[in-house]
Amino acid sequence: MDPLLLVLIVAGVAAAFCWITSLVTNETSWIDRLWSIVPVIYVWIFAGATLVAGVDATRLVVMALLVTAWGARLTFNFARKGGYTGMEDYRWAILRGRMSRWQFQLFNLLFIVLFQSALLVLISLPAYIAWQHPVPFTGWDAAFAALFAAFLVGETVADQQQWAFHQAKRAAGGTLEPGFVTTGLFAYSRHPNFFFEQAQWWAFYALGGTALVADGGSWLNWTIAGAALLTILFIGSTVFTESISASKYPAYREYQRTTSMLVPLPRRRGRAPETA
Q1: Which of 22, 63, 95, 139 has the greatest CB tally within 10 Å of its CB?
Q2: Model confidence over 3-52: pLDDT tens digits?
Q3: Predicted model pTM
Q4: Per-residue pLDDT tens for 42-98?
Q5: What is the pLDDT of residues 87-130, one digit of tens each?
Q6: How far is residue 270's CA from residue 276's CA, in Å, rounded to a whole number?
Q7: Backbone angles phi, psi at 124, to 5 degrees
Q8: Burial of 129 (C-beta count, 10 Å sphere; 0-12/13-18/19+)
Q9: Which residues contact 58 (CB under 8 A, 6 or more apart)?
């Protein structure tokens, strides 16, 4: 069976599962629970097909191992926040309150389930390019794999810093000035974990591109849609999240003024929100 067809079948089953369970349980975070799992399956499908074909699978095995590490880290972080124990993303509850029931169910089907399920396939498809072009592993592959790993480490550090802050906030009775983390990597980016998450998938796209270039093609290919759409999704989600934070915490506006939203940069002139 063509590995792309198998990926699409798995994606269809996953999407149907997310939609049906969201209707049964009346909560919509099922796609979040599969977010860190299905791309790992997709990339290993392509890697497995290459191994079975008996051609050079080095690049795809490296890609699969990197995505497995990404998935393991994200699954752990999501689980320790209670993501697998019935916790729904708080943003969906806010949107549900702003829409009628039929409007939210349409949003649930088209965006939460179908769009995000399609996006998880798209970000995995540089592996399809690598499957189509099983050329030898190159120095560029090694460089982009190292870059992916570095971004993975950055996201791990950012998530741990955020987790430690919220644990301290909980221990303090639910209030810890200024109400959000501003130290460590968060002194240079308001959402460093979001930045590193996106950057990993751009590095993954580049790994597919190296296969195409080594086989006489171009760095620019149609699988760029996955990384590009993921970036657009994250920017939209970040803007929405920040509108909520700014309404909850008086100091957040100053934090926005002095600190880069995504790309880690030196803090602009101004005073950082005071921490307790």
Answers
A1: 63
A2: 999 999 999 999 999 999 999 988 888 999 999 999 999 999 999 999 99
A3: 0.90
A4: 999 999 999 999 999 999 999 999 999 999 999 999 999 888 887 777 777 787 888
A5: 777 777 787 888 888 888 899 999 999 999 999 999 999 999 99
A6: 18
A7: -90, -15
A8: buried
A9: 136, 137, 141
Q: Mind spelling out the 3-state secondary structure of the chain?
A: CCHHHHHHHHHHHHHHHHHHHHHHHCCCCHHHHHHCCHHHHHHHHHHHHHHHHCCCCHHHHHHHHHHHHHHHHHHHHHHHCCCCCCCCCHHHHHHHHHCCHHHHHHHHHHHHHHHHHHHHHHCCCHHHHHHHCCCCCCHHHHHHHHHHHHHHHHHHHHHHHHHHHHHHHHHCCCCCCCCCCCCHHHHCCCCHHHHHHHHHHHHHHHHHHHHHHHCCCCCCCCCHHHHHHHHHHHHHHHHHHHHHHHHHCCCHHHHHHHCCCCCCCCCCCCCCCCCC
Q: Which two tokens stand for residue 96?
A: 């549900």
Type of residue numbered 241:
T
User: In angstroms, how far is the first alpha carbon of the chain from the final one?
Assistant: 59
| Whether the bond into 178 is cis, omega within 30 of 0 | yes
Question: How far apart are alpha carbons 122 and 117 in whole angstroms?
Answer: 9
Distance CA(188)–CA(245), nearest Å, equals 18
Judge whether 15 and 109 are in contact, CB under 8 Å: no
Task: Please identify which residue in the block is written with the tokens 């977010």.
Answer: 35
Amino acid at 96: R
CA distances in angstroms from 165 to 85, 185, 220, 233, listed in the order given: 22, 12, 40, 26
CA distance 233 to 242: 14
| pLDDT at residue 190, rounded to an integer | 96
